[in-house]
Amino acid sequence: MPDTRRNFLRRSALIAGTALAGAGLARSTSAAPLEVPPTAQQPGRPIPPASYGMPSKFESQVVRRRTDVFVNRQNWSDWSMTPLQHQHGIVTPNGLIFERHHAGIPDIDPATHRLVIHGMVKQPLVFSMDNLLRYPSVSKFHFMECSGNTLTDWTKVASTTVQQTHGLLSCAQWTGVPVSWLLDEAGVAPAARWVLFEGADGSNHTRSIPLDKVMDDVLLVYAQNGEMLRPEQGYPLRAFIPGWEGNVSVKWLRRIKVADQPWHFRSETARYTDPMPDGKWRQFSFVMECKSVITRPSGGMKLDRPGFHEIQGFAWSGRGRVSAVDLSVDGGKNWQTSTLEEPVIDKCLTRFRYRWNWDGRPAVIASRAVDSTGYVQPTVQDIMKARAIAGFVQHHNGVFPWSVSASGEVRNAIA
Ligand SMILES: Nc1nc2c(c(=O)[nH]1)N[C@H]1C(S)=C(S)[C@@H](COP(=O)(O)O)O[C@H]1N2
Ligand SMILES: [Mo]
Q1: Is residue 112 part of a domain?
Q2: How far is the CA of 345 from the centre of ligand 2 (A)?
Q3: Is residue 331, in this structure, part of any structural domain at all?
Q4: Which one of 110, 171, 292, 319 is at 20 to 30 Å from 348 when CA atoms are compared?
Q5: Is residue 108 situated within a structural domain?
């Protein structure tokens, strides 16, 4: 039977209808009703006059965590990671969005906060938050990934969980004003080519972005997943640059300047550049290339027994949509097609699923994403042919394997 997409779908439907039902996931029992639990014998908590809802106390393990690998780097320039193994859909809850700041989190009063647009424009402009909130807005689902994601696990195992290997990744619905609208209002000079974004935090984090990209899809964001930004995500205002490394999405935004060339800031020279095989360094490597990872099962989990297990994970691309995710359960020798879950959105996390009948023998599972440009997620060995990876190297989008032992333990298998 040719492995066409239709045949594959038919086969998955068959599996869904029969095999999982017989997998013993629910225990059969006699028809007697369950005992009435105490919670059903008394009223529950009343609704307080006003509240902000919190997760169940039984979900207290679902939290952001700082890096386990750089244990001595507990300072203001730090990061915390999203628990991807607990993320059930494409949206990262606001309290779990990873954090990365170079000088801690400032507390900015929106009443006094100002944004200036100046440089090569006809009319410089200053905005209060009230002004910006008066503009029409757009809301878009996109992922954001720090270019340092997976930095510690290129060639040897350093991290145990997917939170630690891939948790500098989140996905949200971003709401704000396209920067192009405000630049059109300011009147960009014909010779302009680059745009500066500067933060109001202690690091004065600043980046140069090509004008073409800014006019295409860059947003001035004030809300995420329906509520105003959290302080750690840039409250009250940040830049959001879809599909590009998180670093360029400047938080606590206070200044936009237009010019005819880039500025070569610290984050464009000493940091956020990539070593190349010829000893030179690649600058302005903005795009986050197509990548994917299996989140379930993933490092630190245990498969209770052989039989059917749904493999789940996320795929994303800074260049477009995810068009396919291949799945291997034999360390990359053979690949099958997984099922992509709707919606599949441009520059957004996409969920994939694969029904695996584990025979109980040691296995190595991995995913390999393909995006709408035809680009195939490479192996680390492939990446190493084009780039030098010694030291503190960013932009690791390689295929990432997990091993499953005969007793069901799942471990990082990058080595
Ligand atoms: N002003 C400012 N913006 C910043 C940073 C910063 O330290 N200061 N960190 C950058 C980095 S490296 C990343 S990956 C993203 C992280 O955004 P998040 O904390 O909302 O996930 O913000 C970027 N914007
Ligand atoms: Mo970052």
Answers
A1: yes
A2: 23
A3: yes
A4: 110
A5: yes
* Per-residue pLDDT tens over the stretch 191-244: 999 999 999 999 999 999 999 999 999 999 999 999 999 999 999 999 999 999
In whole angstroms, give the CA distance from residue 384 to residue 129. 46
Mean predicted lDDT score pLDDT of the chain: 93
Confidence of residue 30 (pLDDT cuts 50, 70, 90): confident
* Beta-carbon-side half-sphere exposure of residue 63 (alpha carbons within 13 Å): 10
Strands 253-259 and 114-119: parallel
Instruction: Say yes or no: 111 and 224 in one domain.
Output: yes
| Contact 148 CB / ligand 1 (< 6 Å) | no
Ligand 1 within 6 A of 327 CB? no
Instruction: Name the domain count of the chain.
Output: 2
Ligand 1 pocket residue status of 171, Cβ below 6 Å: no
What residues have CB less than 8 Å from 118, skipping those under 6 apart?
124, 125, 255, 256, 257, 258
Indicate whether 179 belongs to any domain.
yes
Distance 143 CA to ligand 1 centre (A): 14
Please give the structure tokens belonging to residue 26.
């629910």
134-189 tens-digit pLDDT: 999 999 999 999 999 999 999 999 999 999 999 999 999 999 999 999 999 999 99
